[in-house]
């Protein structure tokens, strides 16, 4: 089984030198900026609720950002900062979970399709194309509206609709890798097809999948935000999208109720996209010599 990160450069005598994944990653400005933003959001999501008071009712509604309430209060007197810290956890939970389920399912489908080829490949890729041509957001609205909004259902809907991109990327990698010498050697060694697919080929097919996964997290957060903005978010959980939905009637009179969760969504999505760009630089051999 080969390493995910090939050797970079040569040493004395022309021998290849293996460079650490992290040393390459930290040379990418996009990756560093993305990691800083994502790490900050994760810290807010985990430590924020412990450092801020419970989402409480103040004696004053629509209190602007002041020392009494750093990010102001909403129409019910709830502290926006407290909602923001709890909403970070829910938004990240939905984004990461939906991306994880989507990637796992997409990798399985793409691996089987690319390795087996023939009729199996045709059938699975036609299924992926069906999901890609369906208006995904409108289908998500329909499913959530029919079965009711909840965090679990939103995660499941987003994952079901977003797996084809991972499947097609994985399939392309398997078509490229399945004929290489190390796969043929493993096949001649008598290992089973399942071991070939998941132990020998999969680790070498993961780099573009990892890049795509970081972008899927950002896309999943945006999808949850859009659903919540339309009133299809989980009413029992505070998320940034749910905060935007509640702030709609007060955009002119209380700008802070929408501005801060909107800014949080913008930064989080930007962070995951920058991280994806940086990972692409790391995993793309043509870019490793001049990462910026």
Task: Briefly characterize the structure.
The chain has ten helices and no strands.
Describe the structure.
The chain has about 290 residues and is mainly α. The chain has one domain: MetI-like (MetI-like fold), CATH 1.10.3720.10. About 70% of the residues lie in helices and about 0% in strands. It has ten helices and no strands. Helix 8 runs antiparallel to helix 10. The longest helix is centred in the middle third of the chain and has 37 residues. It is elongated. The N terminus is likely disordered.
CATH superfamily: MetI-like
Described by the principal axes of the CA atoms, the overall outline is: elongated
Helix percentage range:
55-70%
Which stretches are poorly predicted, pLDDT < 50 over at least 5 residues?
1-18
Order of helices and strands: HHHHHHHHHH
**What is the name of the CATH topology?**
MetI-like fold
CATH architecture: Orthogonal Bundle
CATH C-level: Mainly Alpha
What is the mean predicted local confidence, pLDDT? Answer: 85
Whole-number count of domains? 1
Number of helices: 10
Number of strands: 0
Rg over C-alpha atoms, rounded to the nearest angstrom: 23 Å
Strand content: under 5%
Distance between the termini: 30 Å
Tell me about the largest β-sheet. Answer: none
Structural class: mainly alpha
């Amino acid at each position: 089984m080969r390493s995910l990160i090939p050797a970079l450069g040569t040493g004395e005598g022309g021998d290849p030198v293996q460079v650490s994944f992290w040393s390459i990653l930290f040379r990418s400005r996009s990756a560093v900026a993305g990691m800083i933003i994502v790490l900050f959001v994760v810290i807010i999501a985990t430590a924020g609720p412990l450092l801020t008071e419970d989402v409480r009712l103040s004696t004053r509604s629509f209190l602007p950002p002041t020392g009494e309430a750093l990010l102001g209060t909403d129409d019910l007197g709830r502290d926006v900062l407290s909602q923001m810290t709890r909403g970070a956890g829910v938004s990240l939970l939905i984004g990461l979970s939906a991306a994880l389920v989507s990637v796992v399912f997409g990798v399985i489908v793409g691996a089987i399709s690319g390795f087996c080829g023939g009729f199996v490949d045709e059938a699975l890729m036609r299924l992926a194309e069906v999901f890609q041509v369906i208006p995904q957001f409108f289908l998500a609205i329909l499913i959530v509206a029919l079965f009711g909004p909840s965090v679990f259902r939103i995660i499941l809907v987003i994952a079901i609709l977003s797996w084809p991109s991972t499947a097609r990327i994985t399939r392309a990698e398997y078509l490229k890798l399945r004929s290489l010498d190390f796969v043929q050697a493993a096949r001649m060694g008598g290992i089973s097809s399942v071991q070939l697919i998941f132990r020998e080929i999969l680790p070498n097919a993961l780099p573009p999948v990892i890049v795509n996964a970081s972008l899927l997290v950002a896309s999943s957060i945006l999808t949850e935000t859009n659903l919540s903005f339309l009133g299809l978010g989980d009413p029992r959980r505070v998320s940034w999208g749910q905060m935007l939905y509640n702030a709609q009637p007060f955009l002119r009179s209380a700008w802070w109720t929408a501005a801060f969760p909107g800014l949080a969504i913008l930064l989080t999505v930007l962070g995951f996209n920058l991280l994806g760009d940086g990972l692409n630089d790391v995993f793309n051999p043509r870019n490793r010599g001049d990462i910026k």
